[in-house]
Amino acid sequence: MNAATPAEDLDNNPTLDLSVVVPVYNEAQCIGPTLATLLDYLRGLDLSWELFVVNDGSRDSTVELVSQVLKDVAGAHLLNYQPNRGKGYAVRTGVLASQGRWVIFLDADLSTPVEEIGNALKHLSAGVDIVIGSRAHPDARIEKRPALFRRFATAVFDQVKFLLVGLREISDTQCGFKGYRRTAVVPLYERSVVNRFMFDVEILFLAKRAGLQIVELPVRWRDVPGSTVRFWLGVYSMFRDLLRIRWAHRGFGVQ
């Protein structure tokens, strides 16, 4: 396994096509099969690629399992830190370490399957800045829906989000699958302040202010029981982070 190197400007590394970022936290039960599936897919692409698995302070055997799987894989990196700081911090760490022309991040439980990477790349290679997986798109294929309580929580969150930061034109800000044109989003991640689950909203808020092109991609998706990805973080956390986004970036971009 190669040691990770600091991110460089794309012009200094023009031959690397794709960076994939997988944030992990206590994923020992699923990370082995996930990495096997992901590496098999990446090896089948006619692209140069790198993989970053970002360990967000796991307390189980995630680090040992990832290290074992990636130890002989060229272009694969484990970024490891303690303590747990949140999914947003983990994704930011991976994006800022990346060097590919395009960056994809996806959840470790593969609730959105790896084949959606190819669909996202079609848009990115055509010049789109950000591709966001959408479970709410009419053409999305939902194989297993979350419990009624989580769907209700999503509806409540959406209304609060629209009120505080807008983004009403985006039907699904929280799907754990997104693709980026690296040079477009690195400045946004460098500016970002939210470390936990509202980071998706923050990046899209900044992207809209910056006038970036955003496309929603209908994805195949299934709810994964036992996932460490929890939507409902509590009313206090949601309000705090949304208000922080609005305040921290009040003077950024177009008005």
Structure overview:
The protein has 255 residues and is an alpha/beta fold. Helices cover 38% and strands 19% of the residues. The protein has eight helices and nine strands. The chain has helices spanning 31-43, 62-70, 87-97, 116-125, 148-165, 182-191, 199-209, 235-248, and strands at 18-24, 49-56, 76-81, 102-106, 130-134, 141-144, 177-181, 214-218, 220-222. Strand 1, helix 1 (31-43) and strand 2 (49-56) form a beta-alpha-beta unit. The longest helix is centred in the middle third of the chain and has 18 residues, at 148-165. 40% of the residues are buried. Residues 1-12 have low confidence and may be disordered.
Write a compact overview of the structure shown.
The protein has 255 residues and is of the alpha/beta class. It has helices spanning 31-43, 62-70, 87-97, 116-125, 148-165, 182-191, 199-209, 235-248, and strands spanning 18-24, 49-56, 76-81, 102-106, 130-134, 141-144, 177-181, 214-218, 220-222. It has a single domain (10-248), classed as Spore Coat Polysaccharide Biosynthesis Protein SpsA, Chain A (Alpha-Beta Complex).
Features:
255 residues, 38% helix, two-stranded parallel sheet, alpha/beta, Spore Coat Polysaccharide Biosynthesis Protein SpsA, Chain A, 8 helices, seven-stranded mixed β-sheet, disordered N terminus
